[in-house]
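call fold(seq) -> tokens
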Amino acid sequence: MFCNDCGKDLGKTKPKFCKYCGANLTNRETTSQVVPVKIQASSTVKETKKHHPWRRYFARMLDIWIVGISTGFMLGIFAPIFLEETPELALTIIIMVLMLPYDAILLSSCKTTFGKWCLGISVTDAKNLPLNFEKASTRSLLVLWRGLGLGIPLVSLFTLIHQYGVLTKKGTTSWDEELECEVHHQNLQPLKVILAIGVAIFSVYLMVLGSNA
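ret:
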């Protein structure tokens, strides 16, 4: 016999009280089948099922700014002439290409990047494991091509609008659907948001400073 309250095995005879949960069984039926016990979801679960397209966009922009600042800093030290003479569009494409290893290394090892970490986003496979390096590289390449349009003006505008529509309609982007990736969103943490805002302001300041140099 099993207690209908807690589902515990009471043995072959029916007692007056359940020895596990104390339920009074005098005028109640027991069952010969295991009763599944419902477990209430913990209120501490912080993941949200919303799609958050704008949060994903700003996380991506933070990563681009991080890679862009790092690239500009290195070129300014080791190849200042190249930095001065290379057209802005070409530099943008170079930064976008450098996003490939940046994304692949961090996603395959940490499930997230700096921008995603600041805004509570992580990317895993269907089993909630980190993407392998090959899949992370492929995902980064598809984001660069289908989502960012290689950073080319107007082209990137159309690709971003298209993928925004796909995400809000289907709940996933074309690359995540194709590669069977899962994007997780946790609740925003104030300190991380402040850090993200600080990095964004600093990046804009550096860009303005560079354009006036």
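Strands lie at 47-48, 121-124, 182-186.
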